[in-house]
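Postdoc handover notes: sequence design on the structure in folder B. Input tokens:
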């Protein structure tokens, strides 16, 4: 599978670009940032869920006619990379409130710049599920690589992992798919590049800090 076939970018409609214009503005209030980010997150979730396996299912409508629809044929589990990934959970829970949610905590060492796994808690049957990994920012790809390896070590099949993120840098995409070619990536934008500080350009700042209101907009997540 080629990199192009594994990366699914939301259609760059005027509506999506308008949402990005509000969200990327450094002067956006936290309320606006959260409100409009949630709209993009719903689009990303819909695109990610479209990548899952379905089978035909026919139902009878209230007027006695038949509708040829579809039914999801797999169990799913979102796994949030703490903390920014948790921003995607509320929208998902409104769609699948019964699904379990896994957590992975990875932090980057400020000196070595390398990611370190601190914590993971996943459902016991995670290996039998399709997994949606929630991480808004795919910059260098270090955290994504670590999280995917955690899932593989738990028995999740590479082809059953869908990495859902808000923004992706070309460098991060190449790193992740270079090591895990079976993984699919769903994003709302592929950025131009990383600068010398590993910040995405044009970027959005630190998504987690802006979403949860803990700091000024600044660096991108890993």
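Designed sequence:
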């Amino acid at each position: 599978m080629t990199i192009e076939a594994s990366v699914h970018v939301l259609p760059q409609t005027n509506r999506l670009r308008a949402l990005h214009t509000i969200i990327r503005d450094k002067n956006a209030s936290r309320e606006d940032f959260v409100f409009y980010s949630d709209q993009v997150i719903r689009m990303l979730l819909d695109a990610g869920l479209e990548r899952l396996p379905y089978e035909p299912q026919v139902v009878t409508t209230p007027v006695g006619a038949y509708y040829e629809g579809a039914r999801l044929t797999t169990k799913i589990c979102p796994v949030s990379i703490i903390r920014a990934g948790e921003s995607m959970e509320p929208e998902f829970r409104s769609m699948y409130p019964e699904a379990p949610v896994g957590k992975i905590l990875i932090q980057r060492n400020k000196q070595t710049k390398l990611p370190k796994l601190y914590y993971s808690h996943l459902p016991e049957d995670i290996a039998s599920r399709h997994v949606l990994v929630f991480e808004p920012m795919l910059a260098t790809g270090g955290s994504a690589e670590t999280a995917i390896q955690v899932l593989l070590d738990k028995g999740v099949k590479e082809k059953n992992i869908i990495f859902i993120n808000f923004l992706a840098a070309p460098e991060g995409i190449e790193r992740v798919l270079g090591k895990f070619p079976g993984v699919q990536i769903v994003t709302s934008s592929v950025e131009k590049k990383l600068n010398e500080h590993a910040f995405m350009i044009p970027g959005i700042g630190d998504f987690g800090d802006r979403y949860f209101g803990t700091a000024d907009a600044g660096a991108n997540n890993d």
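Context for whoever picks this up: The CA atoms of residues 137 and 170 lie 12 Å apart. Don't rerun without checking with the PI first.
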